[in-house]
Amino acid sequence: MRNCLPSVLDSTRTDMSVERYRSVEEMPRVWRAADDPENLRLVAQMLGFYRRLVRSGSRPTGVQRFRTIEAADAALNDPFRR
Q: Per-10-residue mean pLDDT for the chain, 82 residues long?
């Protein structure tokens, strides 16, 4: 892989540290408790944001059939069909 795209791999390389702990007690506390009722509201907000971002209703799904080559070419240039 390194020989295929050396410039891309080198330009996007970031160093990431790895922290090791001898026990679970040494690990930092989580930022939010698993049983916090606020978690459900936050997940709903994230899903709403995702739906607005993706706008899956504006894009056709499945295989599209066209009667002419011109119609197929027009669909390729349509930004909402990508």
A: 49 78 89 87 92 70 85 78 56
